[in-house]
Amino acid sequence: MLARCLSASLLGFDAIPVTVEVDLAPGLPGLQLVGLPDTAIQESRERVRAALRNSGFRGPLVRVVVNLAPADLRKEGPAFDLPIALALLVASGQLDAPVLNGLWCAGELGLDGSIRPCRGILAIACQAAQQEARALAVSADDAAEASLVTGLVVNSAATLRELVDRLRNGQSGAPQRCRPVGEEAIEQAAPAPQSTNNLLSLPGQDLARQGLAIAAAGGHHLLLVGPPGCGKTVLAHQLPSLLPPLDREEALEITRLHSIAGLIRGKGQLIRQRPFRSPHHSATAAALLGGGANPRPGELSLAHGGVLFLDELTEFPRSVLDQLRQPLEEGVIWLSRARISCRFPTRVTLVAAANPCACGWAGDRRCICSELKRRRYWGRLSGPLLDRLDLQLKLEPAEPDSLRRSMAEKSHRQDPTFSAASIDRARVRMRQRNPDGLTNRELSAEGLQRHGRFRAETISHWEDVLRARRLSMRSGLRLPRVARTVADLRANDQVTLENLASALCFRSFDVAEPWS
Prior knowledge:
18 strands
């Protein structure tokens, strides 16, 4: 007898529908799995047998063949335990076939028949809703996560016996909803973060604070170069609180990525705060970009919608950093393997920090680095990567008198142009002006011309700067994008010469070496 049950296999950011087919035929008792299963699926033979027996069901005493279709797609993970068990029950006559019509299943089985959570449930739930599934059956721990998808009916149970009883009782009616779905579930998830009223005051680093405000308003990538202890890390950690709150679509996308990575297994809460990821400089290319035989998201994708902070940038291997260039530009990374090619979204705001030289004290009498050593130190960064960093700032150590004033003053007076309120207003103007809600950093050359609203004298002076500094086309286009963001922060409808001059202040290394 043949039985079918629907499930899905994770492939990058997507979930691919998989049909689990079970056939019982005369022959020596045994269970054979076909359809490119990995080791975890191969081991499901023993888990399913024990779970059926310990749940009070009859185990198959005939030859069993389980096929995972499509057969040319590599499948991985224990999420196929539950659909295999349910299809076996239908094939052996212990469960009626109509129960599985339009039902999707995903879950790992314990030897005692318990249903355990598995990663990527939100991606599977999104695919099930897209395919207009009648319901999705998952473990009780995964029910809240699956319920984040609006309009999807979720059947959950703690054990296989409990789920089968529910399916039998629900044949004449609609399956039960385990929890409120859609908007109600989102409201019950983690609370939204509180907004920050002001940028953190750092003595002697007003220009760096302005650069942080520009990065937050226009989505620009930022490079901070300065000696140890000047505030680079403090500034980077403040950026997520200056970004706009997540809308529902962004929150679902970020939660889905973390679910695929297995970071929220069994929690079932929608991520409401923008991610902040800070990988160590010893991270490999696979850890930073994602990868593996069955690709999983790396730090770059896990920072999607938030901030990727690369501290000690020059300590990362150059071969790893150069692989960031295409994902930073396009907002998506494609991981290609011999059999598959999959994608992960990578729309991040990159903040990089580095010392001016190997010892960290370039320009100070404490520096012990020669000119050649400094050049080798910065030679670890390629020109194309530096071109992609819109804002390049050199930070100086705070003077003793500025430290004394900051300790004596109860509050530090801040330029209202670069306050959190100005950042919010600038983003509103940017969304209203730019097509498709693009940030200023994402505007193309044509988009800048049509929507940038540059004065003629500003364009003329920008062309003079390109010739004088001999900027590449890529870095040359970044200059008007930053100028457009400065104009938004200053509530200017058109980009003036003053806005362009301010943008030039954040291109420190076009005319000088980082250690000079």
